[in-house]
Amino acid sequence: MKPHEIERHQAQANHLEIVLHLRADLFWFRGHFAVQPLLPGVAQIDWAMSYALTLLAPGWRFHSIQNIKFQSPLLPDNRVTLTLNWQEERQILSFSYQRHDGDARHTPVAGRSAYVGKLFSLRVDPLLQPRRDDAGRAGAS
Q1: 102/107 Cα distance (integer angstroms)
Q2: Which residue intervals define the domain ApeI dehydratase-like in the entry (predicted)?
Q3: pTM for this predicted structure
Q4: Other CB atoms closer than 10 Å to residue 38's CB: what's the count?
Q5: pLDDT band at 125, cuts 50/70/90?
Q6: Which residues on adjacent β-strands are paired with residue 4?
Q7: Burial class (CB in 10 A: 0-12, 13-18, 19+), 15
Q8: What's residue 58's pLDDT?
Q9: 2 near 46, Cβ under 8 Å?
Q10: How does DSSP assign 37-61, residue by residue?
Q11: Any idea what the Cα angle at residue 131 is, between residues 128 and 136, rounded to 5°?
């Protein structure tokens, strides 16, 4: 269900850019919509979270999204760059997609947060902390 990955750039441990080709035969394009297939926003969010959890923030989980905005559709056979920026100390992941149109890039998906501008923000909780009961014992549910 993921797109074809063309290349990956990671100059810093908390910043990643992945160039993707949105193949026309991707599951996500089926039935969304018949006249002009569009990549659903849920797919774009899923890919950002999946890459982030695997490559930037293992051991964390996402629990909310702030200020999401889809500005322009992503279509079959588009080439896009997914940019991820993980701020572990603030427990925030920012991400955006830029569609390639020749040499130009356009941002079809954006959100807004106080610290970054036009990027998505996802807050996370650590997965590895055990639950505790009222007495402070680990393993309680």
Answers
A1: 14
A2: 10-103
A3: 0.77
A4: 16
A5: low
A6: 21
A7: middle
A8: 86
A9: no
A10: ----HHHHHHHHHHHHHHHT-TTEE
A11: 125
